[in-house]
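Session log. Operator J.P. requested a structure for one protein chain; no other inputs attached. Running the standard single-chain path with token output.
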Amino acid sequence: MNTHALSIILAASMTVSTAWAQTITEDFKPSELNQPGQQYPQVNSQGYARFRIKAPQADSVKVSLGLGGRGGTRLTKDTDGFFTGTTEGPMDEGFHYYHLTMDGATVNDPGAMNYYGSIRWESGIEIPAHDREFYQLKDVPHGHVQQVLFPSKSTNTSRRAFVYTPPGYDKSDKRYPVLYLQHGWGEDETAWSNQGRANLIMDNLIAERKIEPFIIVMTYGMTNEVKMGKIREFKIEPFQTVLTQELIPYVDATFRTLTERRSRAMAGLSMGGMETRTITLNKPELFSYYALLSGGVYAPQDLKDKPKPSLVFLSAGSKERPDGVRNAAASLKSAGYNAVSYVSEGTAHEFQTWRRSLYQLAPLLFK
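Structure written below.
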């Protein structure tokens, strides 16, 4: 992972557009991620977010740093004990974590659902994206996301993974390729299904016959024991052992998988991309498709004298360092590798970048 990617974590990914609107359109609607029956937070057609919190005993309430820019959004208290405020500018499209600072205490918004990020359960808000159709819940056949517990001798416990099996898996004897898909720092194995909507992306692509179905396995990358600013001290060996010596054999024994190298891929976002890069270089005999989503790059010399990957996919948001992935892919192509770069326009180090990246990646896998 490059220095820029290491310095940007998911907790601060709520980047605001620099093209702030002058007049706020009053067409606010409840966020689609609200608790049932809750009217706030709300979003409007321009991407502004509005919050309303009942806290009659509180003196100050502010929405977390990053939301609305310039140090967060400070809410104003009325005579009924409600704090209300609107972000100073429109936010990037897609999913964002946030929390409240209430009289100095960090709390979640009681109106919003919670998602695991920043090593805690955070409130979530969704800014409707212009291209959201590819990850929307539609009337198409759906796969299943199931929790599994697999034995891990190296950690002396059972560990959890979530496994997506495509529509029709239970009604056939077919065997499937597998993508091992990793979350970022501060998150866990729930992130790609909940925040990323990976299962819906897959369901919709399969329904449109844009991809051949495959299995996705998501497990905890053992990243969160490393504190912010200390990520370079992360040691890959414990997770590499869990993934390659325990999880992959369990998945191959439990699910109908194709077990050859050409039928196995690994991808990850942010710190999960760093894990992907390291493990694919350490264990190239296990994986044939590599994907780093805002998680660094490969250079031709990294892959020299190793089993050649079928695909190297590199992506980033346009507000990150997009030239890095473009230039790296160009260098790999010049060296004879099948390399693809993708840049998500208008997004930063955040889940809309990674949703779009998975949507672009999936049709390229297992060809």
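Operator note: The domain at 134-364 is CATH 3.40.50.1820 (Rossmann fold).
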